[in-house]
Amino acid sequence: MTKIDQIETMILDIPTIRGHVLSMATMRTQTAVLVKVRFSDGSEGIGEGTTIGGLSYGAESPEGIQSAIETYIAPALLGRSGDDVNGAIQLIDKLIKGNRIAKTAVEIALWDGLGKRLGLPVSQLFGGAVHDRLPVAWTLASGNSETDIAEALKMIETRRHNIFKLKIGKRSVREDVAHVARIKEAVGDAASVRVDVNTAWSLQDARWGLKGLQDAGCELVEQPVPARYRRAMAELTKGYEIAVMADEALNGPEDALEVAAALAADVFAVKIGQSGGLKRASEVIAIGQAAGLGLYGGTMLETGLSTAAALQLFSTVEDLAWGTELFGPLLLTEDILADPIIYRDFCVEIPKGVGIGAALDPDKIEFFRRDGGRTMKAVVGE
Ligand SMILES: [Mg+2]
């Protein structure tokens, strides 16, 4: 039996290429928790757990993710079979409530290790890829309309992106709608324009906002109101033609079922970290498909590592009608992968190779790591 021998975690702080202005925080650095699992046959798997803006986006912080892994998840898994990924997922779900991003980081490393030992990409473990590339959006979040327009036009010209998501919700609804209208007018039919409010609006704000956004030619609004306002989401979904997407409201398959049953979204933003791993994300996808909803491959602005893992799963999905936003590596000043993820012709390519299809650049890891890393080992004879 191939056992789980060691689990190492470390925190990486990587600068972003510009300030990323969100309704709840401005990011100038992205912090990723890296996990390395070493197996008894000498094989290794890598994973990542990343959130947005420290504790301003969700309930898990990078430091909390690392602590949950080393204090609770690793001791439960050390000495167990490395090939029994489902068994590991079920055990950890029984022992540990919530902490989905921490669970995801370890699960990715287990899938990666299994794929490498079998000589297969992780997509094959989910039945096989049906796409070799997927459309990829870019987020305009400089906080300035002129800068955003220049950035959008450059992206269209270089054929990198023709789907733009605008981060709004920090200013008044009126100012935000005017900002979106200016950008849509500048890009015209050459690009799709969408917005993410990151829960910043009340229902009253959202009624005005959706009306204005719709008139401006914006196609989709992501999480306009707080995650728990399911009835407000249902009213907005029913009341306007513009598509309403659930993001913060979707923390795993149970939420997906409730949102679908409440008719509280047109589209699911599926995030592997927020779902609790690749397996749980595949369940969120299945619920969205069964409910006839649109699907979108979301990101927590992860590095190339977790982006590669997400691509392995999303490549197996029949129809991601709204594409993906897996541009995380492009927001960072440097990629931490030896062979960066490829972006071209408005798409992101599914990485080739075994496991998640990603290898770390050891010099970059050494440069960006916050501390010395922490390693937990299996007790001999366990
Ligand atoms: Mg979002």
TrEMBL record:
Coiled-coil stretches: none
Gene Ontology biological process terms in this record: amino acid catabolic process; peptide metabolic process
Named cofactor requirement(s): Mn(2+)
Keyword field: Aromatic hydrocarbons catabolism, Isomerase, Manganese, Metal-binding
Residue stretches making up the Mandelate racemase/muconate lactonizing enzyme C-terminal domain: 146-243
Catalytic residues identified in the record: 167, 325
InterPro entries for the chain: Chloromuconate_cycloisomerase, Enolase-like_C_sf, Enolase-like_N, Enolase_C-like, Mandel_Rmase/mucon_lact_enz_CS, Mandelate_racemase_C, Mandelate_racemase_N_dom
Gene Ontology MF annotations: chloromuconate cycloisomerase activity; magnesium ion binding; manganese ion binding; muconate cycloisomerase activity; racemase and epimerase activity
Pathway: Aromatic compound metabolism
UniProt record similarity statement: Belongs to the mandelate racemase/muconate lactonizing enzyme family.
Name of the protein: Muconate cycloisomerase
Native source species: Ruegeria marina
